[in-house]
Amino acid sequence: MTDPAALRARAEGxxxxxxPLLAGARxxxxxxxxxxxxxxxxGQGDEFWQYRPFAGGDEARMxxxxxxxxxxxxxxxxxxxxxxxxxxxxxxxGRSMAFASGDRLPAKGHRASELALAxxxxxxxxxxxxxxxxxxxxxxTGELQLLRLAGALGDAESAAEYGAPGTRDMRAGSRAVFLxxxxxxxxxxxxxxxxxxxKGVSGVLMQILDPQEEAFPxxxxxxxxxxxxxxxxETLKAGDLRGRYLDRLAARKAELRDLARLTGWQYGCHHTxxxxxxxxxxxxxxxxxxx
Length: 291
Fold this sequence. Notes:
alpha/beta; 10 strands; 9 helices
């Protein structure tokens, strides 16, 4: 049996370096009132879901005779499917995610990590198993797992300009959530979603953008430089680039949307200037629609 004192000591040790992210995610999760995690699917469980008419192939022992006695037909009593499911999260740790166009806006990476952790809180509260893809953190339940997630997300920065998702730790039939600006090479995203679909993994792509990246409010002499410093472009007529940039951004969104549709995933876009609660509700509802 686990020693409660030792467990608490380990938990406090894990939590010590990461109060801001965890506190923010807890606050965000508290603002969302969801009630029970009603997946509304038939299967093994204790909660009554619905009655349905007896059909060919059903076993007679499944008939609810009390309900059937009140009508001319036979009915089965179905229970809601409640087996805990695995949800794998991937948060882009690339340097591009460190961008924020103003002091009052969060960096894209911070918003992505906060959303991922708040979503994990809601899922763990509902009995789901949650893990991090490509972070050697398999899906588990419980408060200690939440602290592990917070620790990993708080240290998710990469030396690469753009992150690349993977499906190495995803279990067949599980679900996944990818959070990124998706502005880098699209090939790794194609590969990850194709591999996920082959495993029967469905999920959600959430593209997170700064409002400035959406509007491109530049004109005149402008120097564009990537967050890692590896890319740099200077122009005297930034306004002339606006149309081409917006066309390419729209094309990238359309490509992500089509890729999600073809692989059975869902796509959404969130701007860091918008309320995080709206994005969290959308993410949670998207996972509900996923099954």
